[in-house]
Amino acid sequence: MITDSHGRTINYLRLAVTDKCNLRCTYCMPAVGLNWLPKAELMTTEEMLRISRLLITMGVEKIRITGGEPFVRKDLMPFLGELSKMLGHGLKEITLTTNGLLTEPYIPELKKLGIRSVNLSLDTLDRQRFIDITRRDALPQVLNTLEKLLLAGIAVKINTVVMEDCNTQDILPLVALTKSMPVSVRFIEEMPFNGGTHDISLSWNFSRIIEHIREQYPDLAKMQDPIHATALNYHIEGHQGDIGVIAAYTRSFCGSCNRLRITAKGGLRTCLYGQGVLNLKDLIRAGASDQVIEKQLLSAVLNKPLDGWEAEKNKTNNIIKQPSMATIGG
């Protein structure tokens, strides 16, 4: 097992396969997009598999594939096919986070590969607001992906970033989805990783989101949160699905963090609010053995900060804004 200095077992990896995205969400990046990484700077399939295999031998049990948008990467499915061979050999679960635009044709294959859960980014059910937020007219595609995932028996968590003066009117319509659909709708505090597009407002923090839902659904009941959960989980009597609220900026869940992040260019982050501590791609390309990489991984994890506040305080550049969430692995 990988254990940090706070006694936490680290068994969950978020692996970014690309920094590219086919949306331009206002809370993530400027309208013109980003300066995408050249292909040579991205990890290859073989490098990602080697890192995954090594971390699994060290105790990682769950891998979430993120981006950017994972399905923008053309060799994603072959990579997932090889990664899925590690299921049952230390690896217990592979999950994906996607915006749903390119996902639908691959759902049958995802099912065959043993992927049982997908996080779907969806910030509104209103077509015009979707265009305003993502700068793309693609809501029907996302809703079609949602329907097909559920028909395939793949569990879906809907991720919604709550933004003042933007989509707070969508909170209750999204909650209403849980009545007829077995989905988990998770409302996320806006974070500062927006490419510097605007200053965030925390007037809609996790407690206000919960209060707003409870005004319409007074029987909103707190559920038992799983260990290491990032969300505060709730259920409404008679609803098939449930609701989660993630204090992503308030960072009230950080103390039980069991996660590592690896960016598309191989950078290891032990905390979302920290900075890169090690580049695994560079180690591999320099000819490092698995033993050398393992030793450096263990050293990096041992210095994992207690929470996001400590990580932010320890950043040498003392800058909280990042170019984009796409650059740090979703």
Keywords:
two-stranded antiparallel sheet, 330 residues, MoaA, single chain, EC 4.1.99.22, GTP-binding, 18% strand, TIM Barrel, 10 helices, alpha/beta, twelve-stranded mixed beta sheet
Which helices and strands appear, and what pairs or packs with what?
Elements: E1 2-3, E2 9-10, E3 12-16, H1 45-57, E4 62-66, H2 76-84, E5 93-98, H3 107-112, E6 117-121, H4 127-134, H5 139-151, E7 155-162, H6 171-180, E8 184-189, H7 206-216, E9 221-222, E10 231-235, E11 242-246, E12 259-262, E13 267-269, E14 278-279, H8 280-285, H9 290-302, H10 308-314
Parallel strand pairs: 3-4, 3-12, 4-5, 5-6, 6-7, 7-8, 8-11
Antiparallel strand pairs: 1-2, 9-10, 10-11, 12-13, 13-14
Keywords: 4Fe-4S, GTP-binding, Iron, Iron-sulfur, Lyase, Metal-binding, Molybdenum cofactor biosynthesis, Nucleotide-binding, S-adenosyl-L-methionine
EC number: 4.1.99.22
Pfam families: Mob_synth_C, Radical_SAM
Describe this structure in a few short sentences:
By secondary structure, the protein is an alpha/beta fold.
Biggest β-sheet, characterized?
A: 12 strands, mixed
At CATH level 2, the architecture is: Alpha-Beta Barrel
Total strand segments:
14
Overall domain count: 1
Average pLDDT taken over every residue: 91
Catalytic activity: GTP + AH2 + S-adenosyl-L-methionine = (8S)-3',8-cyclo-7,8-dihydroguanosine 5'-triphosphate + 5'-deoxyadenosine + L-methionine + A + H(+)
Pfam families: Mob_synth_C (PF06463), Radical_SAM (PF04055)
EC number: 4.1.99.22
Cofactor: [4Fe-4S] cluster
